[in-house]
Design goal:
The protein is mostly helical and 296 residues long. Helices cover 50% and strands 4% of the residues. It folds into 3 domains: 11-118, no CATH class; 145-221, no CATH class; 261-296, no CATH class. It starts with 12 loop residues before the first strand and ends in a 14-residue tail after the last helix.
Length: 296
């Protein structure tokens, strides 16, 4: 049966991982494999390939093995020499560095994983013997990009976590802070991180100075901390007092007699039960107080 070929202008590029379909090939790497010959590009976008690389990097704890595994899957040429070349230009090479060299260097043109096998490379997933001892894989960061964007680059994962934890604490205690207070909160978080570092390293003088700086900034910003809670709940004493005042006026706590019979049950009991029983037992003719006039 004859097959209809798709015109070049109708070619699309799709990722089998995230499902994106586009007519722009910029988000995909070129492929020399005959398997993907319809458009000459890999069936996975650059972003998803980077995520897959991070997954294998955590699994194998080796840049060589992570890239090697991806080359097996997508029929790409693999060589330790390319990874070594990436190391010369980058202390921690990535899959994007590898793909750039693979697709731009003339000696690797049109090569696939089949060429890797022909050269006698066995996919035993072991470290190459030529790997230098000083090439260590840096741990993959688990900090979200939004957090890094808030605090800027240059912090360790532990620092990012400490900053974000104190930031959330201050924001929870001050949910209605304005833009100026937001700036103070950012400064307070960094001061708190330096304060903890000074305490860990035994720098007492620095710790005292940072503590005083934190206190002054906190007061100047007009911020507040979360007050003591009731039974571990999130209700603050101030919120609790306002809630009570909506249903029971504060005057009730000042003058106990003012609202002694606030629901009228005592008056009802007196009118409908005590007064009739008294008249019945003693033969009196007492009426309700507002209608009763003593004959004497």
């Amino acid at each position: 049966m004859a097959r209809k070929m798709m015109p070049v202008q109708e070619l699309t590029y799709s990722c089998h991982r995230c499902g994106i379909v586009t007519e722009d090939p910029k988000g995909f790497y070129r492929s020399n494999s005959l398997v993907y010959g319809i458009n000459g590009y890999m069936p996975i976008c650059k972003d998803c390939l980077a995520l897959l690389y991070d997954r294998y990097l955590r699994m194998y704890e080796s840049i060589y093995l992570a890239i090697k595994r991806i080359c097996m899957i997508y029929d790409m040429y693999y060589s330790d020499k390319i990874v070594d070349a990436c190391y010369k230009n980058n202390a921690s090479p990535s899959i994007s560095n590898y793909m750039q060299k693979l697709n731009t260097m003339a000696q690797y043109k049109n090569k696939t994983f089949e060429d890797t096998l022909r050269e006698g490379f066995f996919f035993d997933m072991k470290e190459p013997s030529t790997m230098q001892s000083n090439k260590e894989v840096e741990p993959v960061s688990t900090i979200p990009e939004s957090v890094k964007a808030r605090w800027g680059a240059g912090f360790s994962d532990e620092d990012y976590k400490a900053l974000e934890e104190h930031y959330r604490y201050l924001k929870k205690s001050n949910p209605d802070c304005d833009s100026n207070q937001e700036i103070f909160i950012m400064d307070l978080c960094q001061t708190k991180m330096q304060q903890v570092a000074a305490m860990k390293n035994g720098r007492t003088d620095d710790y005292i100075k940072l503590t005083e700086s934190y206190r002054k900034t906190f007061v100047q910003a007009g911020l507040k901390t979360t007050t003591e809670t009731i039974d571990g709940s999130d209700d603050r004493w101030g919120d609790f007092s306002r809630m009570v005042s909506q249903y029971t006026p504060e005057e009730y706590y000042k003058d106990k007699k003012l609202y002694k019979d606030f629901d009228g049950l005592g008056d009802y009991f007196k009118r409908m039960l005590l007064r009739p029983l008294k008249n019945l037992k003693f033969g009196t003719t007492d009426r309700d107080e507002e209608y009763f006039v003593d004959d004497e």
